[in-house]
């Protein structure tokens, strides 16, 4: 037991020193390679602490080896934009003046609901609250709000159409039949298949983004008594 305690203290001290040398970034601000190195180091540290048959030096050498790899990748990343892009990726502009960029979302293996969730975490609930939204290479959303953000709606917008498919659950909340949705889109010279995103709030305010066209703000006459 005493041997295990001593080994644990040695590994813990080594980890503290290594993590301090790696820098002060928060977990949510780590680049992908930094997060991977941190996970592997944590796993390597557990092995010699739990199994006293493994020489302690093996764990320490492995941790120090990963630290050196981290330093090498950091130096390469700082040496120029090419290596920075290869190692950590580059930011993606997922909302611009024309609306949500579905191509950029797909490149990041995300969908509209992921984007809306990230926006809500920063206090934005409507897709047109932002003039620009950028997913940084560390996965964090950077938002540039429009002038009248937060003044556009007093109710929560819900996703009605996502990439050409209606959201049945939300249509039921809004008490809208699929045929009524299709008729509304047809009146606006659009159709369901080419509609990338459509959201609607409890006042009938619609955010509509169709393929190859800028987003539009429209209004839908909700049935009497419908509110959320």
Descriptors:
228 residues, 5-stranded antiparallel beta sheet, 4-stranded antiparallel beta sheet, 18% strand
Summarize the structure in words.
The protein has 228 residues and is an alpha+beta fold. It is built from eight helices and nine strands. It has helices at residues 2-22, 32-50, 56-78, 81-88, 102-107, 112-120, 168-174, 178-187, and strands spanning 92-96, 99-100, 130-135, 141-145, 158-162, 165-166, 195-200, 205-210, 216-219. Strands 6-5-7-8-9 form a five-stranded antiparallel sheet. Helix 1 runs parallel beside helix 3, helix 2 (32-50) packs antiparallel against helix 3 and helix 3 (56-78) packs across helix 4 (81-88).
Characterize this entry briefly:
This protein is α+β, with helices and mostly antiparallel strands and 228 residues long. It contains eight helices and nine strands.
């Amino acid at each position: 037991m005493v041997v295990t305690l001593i080994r644990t203290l040695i590994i813990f001290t080594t980890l503290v020193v290594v993590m301090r040398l790696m820098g002060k970034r928060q977990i949510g601000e780590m680049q992908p390679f930094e997060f991977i190195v941190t996970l592997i180091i944590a796993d390597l540290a557990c092995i010699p602490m739990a199994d006293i048959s493994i020489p302690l030096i093996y764990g320490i050498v492995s941790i120090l080896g990963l630290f050196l790899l981290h330093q090498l990748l950091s130096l390469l990343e700082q040496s120029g934009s090419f290596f920075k892009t290869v190692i950590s990726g580059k930011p993606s502009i997922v909302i611009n003046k024309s609306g949500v960029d579905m191509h950029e979302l797909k490149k990041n293996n995300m969908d509209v609901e992921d984007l809306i969730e990230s926006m809500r975490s920063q206090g934005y609930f409507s897709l047109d609250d932002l003039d620009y939204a950028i997913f940084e290479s560390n996965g964090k959303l950077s938002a540039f709000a429009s002038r009248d953000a937060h003044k556009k709606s007093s109710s929560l917008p819900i996703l009605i159409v996502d990439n050409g498919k209606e959201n049945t659950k939300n249509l039921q909340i809004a008490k809208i039949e699929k045929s009524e949705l299709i008729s509304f889109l047809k009146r606006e010279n659009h159709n369901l298949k080419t509609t990338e995103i459509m959201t609607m709030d409890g006042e009938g305010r619609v955010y509509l983004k169709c393929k190859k066209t800028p987003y539009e703000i429209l209004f839908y006459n909700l049935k009497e008594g419908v509110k959320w």
